[in-house]
Design a protein that fits this description.
Length: about 300
């Protein structure tokens, strides 16, 4: 991953939050439940064998139910009332909408390997991710279904925030990250001696998110990077090499390859963006919405140990 940029740097702030919710929410079980189907081996009744002694799926499931059953049931009830509310209000997303959202989410990973590594790191299956995206989309729509944003609201917000809505000055840069100043000086000497930057980055950089791309970070604004790195990068002209730059991540050699001047925002260019921002600011709190849905639900328990969930 890129050490100085957010994992989901290509997303706008809300989509970045959604992506984080999907990955981290699944990882800690905020929205997801157990999915034990289709996981058994050829010996379907045996989960593992320890020193010749089998642990059966019945024993395994019984322990899971005893220790985690209540929590999983609460999650399943929550998922059910969300899905029911989405259908009732006509806000459930279509399969095409989910496919589009998922494609946008996945596009923010630099490659398939990184994407799969993140899923593996948090123990998430792609099917679970798509299911959670469906739920989160319904929640988004439910929280904003009664929000009204007028043209006057949009114009007022634009006038108050136009400086923030434009595109700031950006540079495109590559870097080589190493763990010591001594190594950085050696790398710098090689580059000043004519070594190819991309080749040196691929060989010596310790940034796994960029070394395969020759150290390329793409375009970024000054606030996207830590100050030490940003100050050095924005002081360079295209095709100019920095000296050794120290940051909390190590020592960098930076090569700026392109620049973009700042562009002022116009109301028509950002109207949709501002409208969406205002809708989200006025949206109902997700936790409050879920509490309301659960309070309104009629829940009947058919297993004695779960009578406490009835209402």
């Amino acid at each position: 991953m890129k050490p100085m940029r957010e994992v989901f740097s290509g997303l706008n702030p809300h989509r970045r939050a959604l992506a984080a919710c999907l990955i981290f929410g699944l990882a800690v079980g905020l929205l997801g439940g157990f999915n034990l189907q289709g996981r058994a081996s050829a010996r379907g009744d045996v989960v593992v064998t320890v020193n010749g002694q089998d642990i059966s799926k019945e024993v395994f499931y019984a322990r899971l139910e005893r220790e985690k059953g209540a929590a999983v049931l609460d999650q399943l009830i929550m998922e059910t009332v969300i899905m029911q509310a989405g259908k009732r209000e006509g806000l459930a997303p279509t399969e095409e909408e989910i496919d589009e959202k998922f494609s946008l989410f996945k596009a923010n990973f630099p490659d398939e390997e990184t994407y799969q590594n993140v899923l593996a790191q948090y123990g998430v299956q792609e099917e679970q991710l798509i299911e959670e995206l469906h739920l989160v989309t319904i929640l988004e729509r439910l929280t904003m279904k009664d929000v009204v944003v007028t043209d006057e609201d949009v114009e007022k917000y634009f006038e108050e925030n136009k400086d923030k809505l434009g595109q700031p000055e950006q540079v495109r840069a590559s870097h080589i990250l190493v763990d010591s100043e001594e190594t950085a000086k050696e790398v710098l000497a090689d580059l000043e001696g004519g070594a190819d930057f991309a080749a040196v980055a691929a060989e010596k950089s310790i940034d796994p998110g960029t070394k395969a791309q020759g150290g390329d970070l793409g375009f970024f604004s000054k606030t996207d990077m830590v100050p030490e790195f940003a100050d050095a990068a924005f002081a360079l002209e295209p095709n100019q090499l920095s000296g050794v730059v120290k940051s909390p991540y190590g020592c960098h050699i930076i090569l700026v390859t392109d620049r973009k001047v700042a562009v002022a925002a116009t109301l028509e260019d950002v109207r949709e963006q501002v409208t969406e921002t205002l809708r989200r600011e006025q949206a109902k709190d997700v936790n409050e919405l879920i509490r309301e849905l659960l309070k309104e639900a009629k829940i009947e328990a058919h297993w004695e140990q779960y009578r406490s969930v009835e209402q």
